[in-house]
Amino acid sequence: MDTAGLLQDAYGRIHEIVHHAASDLDAEALAYRPDPDGNSIAWLVWHLTRVQDDHVADVAGTEQIWTKEGFYDRFGLPFAPSDTGYGHRNNEVAAVRVDSPGLLLGYHDAVYEHTRSYLAGLKDPDLDRIVDERWNPPVSLGVRLVSVISDNLQHAGQAAFVRGMNQRL
């Protein structure tokens, strides 16, 4: 397996966990928070998808799916188009609500397909390209893509955990 295939596999696992966590839930279950300061499934999936969309679009030099395909307007959230959820406080987490998993998973699926397509064209030497010089050491493409995988897997696992907690009530 080449590196692009390995990365595609990792992002595919995120995609599977997200679908497991959010499929077949109603608005109440998607908004369920284990305590008043906890994150809901809707927020977790929206946030991890926003991070993937933002970071992959940046390294690919493309417009984010969020704005390009009109998801920003369809979600109707009270945030700037560039908001990914990083640093959100309690009231902002509560603002991420959807009526059903369709919109949430539709956005995630579109971002996943963009990511998968981008990864398919990568060659191993591409991963050494510096994509962010604000850090010391500067961040390479490979490091950025793995960072997104790490962040996304954590949030997808949290969403699956919250689903399990809610189902036990």
Strand content: under 5%
| Count of extended strands | 2
Cα-to-Cα separation, first versus last residue: 43 Å
Which geometry do the CA atoms define? globular
Task: Return the string of H and E elements.
Answer: HHHHHHHEEH
Calculate Rg over CA atoms: 16 Å
User: What structural class do the secondary elements suggest?
Assistant: mainly alpha
| Number of helical segments with 4 or more residues | 8
The side-by-side strand order for the widest beta sheet comes to 1-2
Q: Segments where pLDDT lies below 50 for 5+ residues? A: none
Task: Report mean pLDDT, rounded to a whole number.
Answer: 97
Features:
single chain; 169 residues; mainly alpha; two-stranded antiparallel sheet; 2 strands
Structure description:
- This protein has 169 residues and is an all-alpha fold.
- The chain is 63% helix and 3% strand.
- It has 8 helices and 2 strands, in the order αααααααββα.
- The protein has a two-stranded antiparallel ribbon.
- β1 and β2 form a beta hairpin.
- The longest helix has 27 residues.
- The mean pLDDT is 97.
